[in-house]
Amino acid sequence: MANRTAITVETTIQAPVEKVWKYWTEPAHIQNWTFASDDWHAPYADNDLKEGGKFKTTMAAKDGSFSFDFGGVYTNVGEYKVIEYTMDDSRTVKVNFSSDGNATKVVETFEAEDTNSIEMQRGGWQAILDNFRKYTEAN
């Protein structure tokens, strides 16, 4: 397979890493933030957070016009530090969590796909990450 472009998005959340980790990994929370805009939602999420464990989140337009499943298999899980996985299309993702106690920085690096522009992919993943930050800080 050809080398893929790595794209990185990041945010800092005003919350301790334990809360950030919980909101990132628990299906009840995942369903509340895993979408890029308000006209989308995540009606289904399942997460077996361990090496070799699988996850799946359904992302759907609220008007019912389109939906897709985002899923993969975990390759590395280090509690409160790192989550790595391979998506169903064989691309890899690494998410790093670092905290100073009051705030947690989340840095997500993923391999680009070949359909959409790098800018569009970065924008979409950043929008989801920003939605995660807003959800976590508000709850």
Outline the structure in words:
It is a single chain. The chain has 139 residues and is of the alpha+beta class. It has one domain (6-138): Alpha-D-Glucose-1,6-Bisphosphate, Chain A, domain 4, CATH 3.30.530. The chain has helices at 17-25, 27-30, 118-138, and strands at 6-13, 40-47, 54-61, 67-78, 82-87, 92-99, 104-111. Strand 5 and strand 6 form a beta hairpin. The model has no long low-confidence stretch (mean pLDDT 96). Belongs to the AHA1 family. InterPro entries: ASHA1/2-like_C, START-like_dom_sf. Residues 15-136 form the Activator of Hsp90 ATPase homologue 1/2-like C-terminal domain.
**Whole-number total of structural domains:** 1
Q: What class do helices, strands and sheet pairing give?
A: alpha+beta
Top-tier CATH class = Alpha Beta
Query: How many angstroms does the end-to-end distance come to?
Result: 42 Å
Structural Rg: 14 Å
Low-pLDDT ranges: none
CATH superfamily: START domain
Q: Largest sheet, described in full?
A: 7 strands, antiparallel
Q: What would you call the quaternary organization?
A: single chain
Number of distinct beta strands = 7
| Order of SSEs | EHHEEEEEEH
Biggest β-sheet: strands ordered side by side in the sheet: 1-7-6-5-4-3-2
Calculate the mean pLDDT score and round it: 96
**Helix run count:** 3
CATH architecture classification = 2-Layer Sandwich
Give the structure's gist in a few sentences.
With 139 residues, the protein is an alpha+beta fold. The chain is 24% helix and 42% strand.
